[in-house]
Amino acid sequence: MELKKNPKADVGRNSGLYFVIGLALVMFLVWQGLEWKKYDESNDYDIALNVEDQLDEEVPMTEQIKTPPPPPPPAAPEVIEVVEDEEEVEETVIESTETSQEEEVMEVEDVEVEDIDEDLTVPFAVIEDVPVFPGCEGASNKKQCFQEMMQKHIRKNFRYPEIAQEMGVQGRVSVMFTIQKDGSIGNIRMRGPDKNLEAEAMRIIQKLPKMTPGKQRGRAVKVPFSIPITFKLQ
Description:
Blueprint: H1 15-35, E1 47-50, H2 142-157, H3 162-167, E2 171-179, E3 185-191, H4 195-206, E4 215-216, E5 219-220, E6 223-233
Antiparallel strand pairs: 1-6, 2-3, 2-6, 4-5
Membrane topology: Single-pass membrane protein
Main location: membrane
Subcellular location: Cell inner membrane
């Protein structure tokens, strides 16, 4: 009697189908693994501007005047010889240098004194009449008003550079500039931890309005001024 296998009991009947399904599943998992991406959590920056209440004023060093050494002491007098009364001593006749009234008087023309236009530079801390910021003309304390208006100007025009935010750069930029004799801003210099922060500080100072120049003894002079600008990420 020949044994016949039941087709329902054939284990390898659908092996090819199972192989294709398994291969497709493995390919799908490999593809998902290759396409998997992980993103860093976004940092929320709290940008703050810190302008110090007391503005630092950099007073330039004055050159010390070298005084000449004192003159040497006078030499000791020579020994005076005593002359006896019997010997004749020649007298030295000194002629009078006074002029007589008959001599003509020379007329001296008026001497014209030219004003020397010195390019004076007086620090902000010691100048007699400080530069006047627009809006401080009627203030009783023009120096305090000047500092307050400088702070308002910086807060109004402050903008944190985006590239500095992305790099996490922060720090303090010291800015020095000169208020010229015509009230304009010139000779801007700065020193800070990053070029992007220095460029932003330069842009803020260049937007300063024209001022009434400072005066020393009634004459307009150049006035150097310095201010720190702090860039801080929190």
